[in-house]
What does this fold into?
Amino acid sequence: MGRMLICCGKKAETPLYMKEFQISVSTIEELCYCLKKNLHMLDKNIMREKLCSFIEQQLEMKKLAGQLRTVIENQEGLVAFVCCIMKFVGYLSKEEMIYLEAELQEVEGQSQIVRRKAKADFLLEHKKYAKAAIEYNHILQEETIEDEKITGDIYHNLGTIYSRMFYFDKAAEYYQMAYEKNKDEESYERYLLALHMQLPKEEYVKRVAEEMVAEKTALNLEKKLGQALIDEKDSPKRCQMQEILKYRQLGYVQEYYRALEKIFDEYKQEYRGSMSEG
It folds into this structure.
């Protein structure tokens, strides 16, 4: 059985929207949960007066707000700021607090590139594809990245964004760039999958034959695709994908794009959500 947590403060009449996490909080417990869940996205930008004012005015926790302002004024850092909130509320056990402090110290020691990538990864995970793509591109343009694996992983994630938006040609380009940097087999497999989705069968086979490392990966990919169809034999997604692949392989262009359009309609609402600001 878990610990009993006695609620502190009041519920805010006007919730605080936390842009970093794409979420609004109305209670101090919601704030604690949000901070704990997103530790690896935290940075000193969270140490701002707006949060202190929310805690003081909306949650009526003046003592905590005062303590947080002192942490900010004394430049005590992210670890002290977050732990001040957690300890005041009693949100975590003693053992959990020790673990939290260690995790925060690790986060605080991370480079700006790693922290920015973590935020972009968060946006991708929550299907905010347009925002994630913008952030990844900003990192590539604005940061000097010495670790080629990080660069490759960013390219990989950009490939994932474009593949989920059905831009398979662009996805293939980014997955290929990712593999050139990170030498990760998954990036190469995704590159072949993107090619598989956009090229006629004959051209796909020709491309695979031209690449020295492609044959083994392509065979593994075909096995996985076949297994996926077996595992999802009763799902609507399987029927849709079979329809699309069938039309593409037979060269039925109109039917192929009709099938794609059907899937586009189903994902339209989700795509709009990924583009929204809220």
Notes: The longest strand covers residues 16-18.
